[in-house]
Amino acid sequence: MSESEIMTEAQHDFICRDVVENIMDYIDKELDLETLSELEKHTGMCPECRAFVDTYKRMLDLTGKLKEKKFVTPEIRNRLRILLQSKVRLS
Amino acid sequence: MRTKFLAWRSGLPVRRRTQKRCLEVFLTLTKKLGTFRGESKFSSWLYRVTANASYMRIRAEKKHESNMSLESYAPYDEKGTLLGRIKNKDWSSRPDLVIFSKEAVEIIESSINELPESNRVVFHLRDIEGLTNEETAEVLGLSVAAVKSRLHRARLFLRDKLSDYFYEWRK
Description:
CATH superfamily of the largest domain in chain B: Winged helix-like DNA-binding domain superfamily/Winged helix DNA-binding domain
Shape of chain B: elongated
Strand content of chain A: under 5%
Structural class of chain A: mainly alpha
Strand content of chain B: under 5%
CATH architecture of the largest domain in chain B: Orthogonal Bundle
Mean pLDDT of chain B: 73
Number of domains of chain A: 1
Distance between the termini of chain B: 34 Å
Mean pLDDT of chain A: 81
Low-confidence stretches of chain A: none
Number of helices of chain A: 5
Largest sheet of chain A: none
CATH class of the largest domain in chain B: Mainly Alpha
Largest sheet of chain B: none
Largest interface: A-B, 36 and 44 residues
Number of strands of chain A: 0
Order of helices and strands of chain B: HHHHHHHH
Low-confidence stretches of chain B: 3-13
Oligomer: heterodimer
Helix content of chain A: over 70%
Number of domains of chain B: 2
């Protein structure tokens, strides 16, 4: 493999890492336009990143089915209830 | 004796731990020998004690896993390459019937319970209750950056767990 090909592979891997680390902002479209454009261009060319993004989104779809489940202590649920009640009063 | 050994093995994902676990269960048996009242067959009592000890060991290991931090969790290696678990494991196009199957829901529920508490709480408030980052930070007394970081690691962990499940399912 030539030096330029090695550099390209390293840069490619670096952007893959960028996709992973910025996935939340990427999904929520909270990235600046330049970064968003760069990552979208990359995921169009990188099958691993495409798979990562698509499976990440499907995972969020699945967790959306767990609305009735509770994974926290009663204390946290109580604090949540207080927060929501205060928001209702303010509105 | 073989029955008891198999009871142990059924709870053990790795063969090489068997020897150590056998020693542990023998120690448990010697401690509990005085509790055998002769109301059932000795072999039944032996099986029950072995199975319980195995189960308790698994639970202790799961608790240890959930005490581990996800701070550095990532699906890529030290070179920044997405790991092999990503390749050929794009299950996103599976039909909804498969993605939202009872088994998949159980897998993700179980995986959520494996999360360290600090990540699990944030995940619950954001992705189950639907709070914003700011609201979650307010409820938990955290910074927004901390909320985002913990949620990020939790989601990566869960995505990987689901990927492992769907990959095994396809095989």
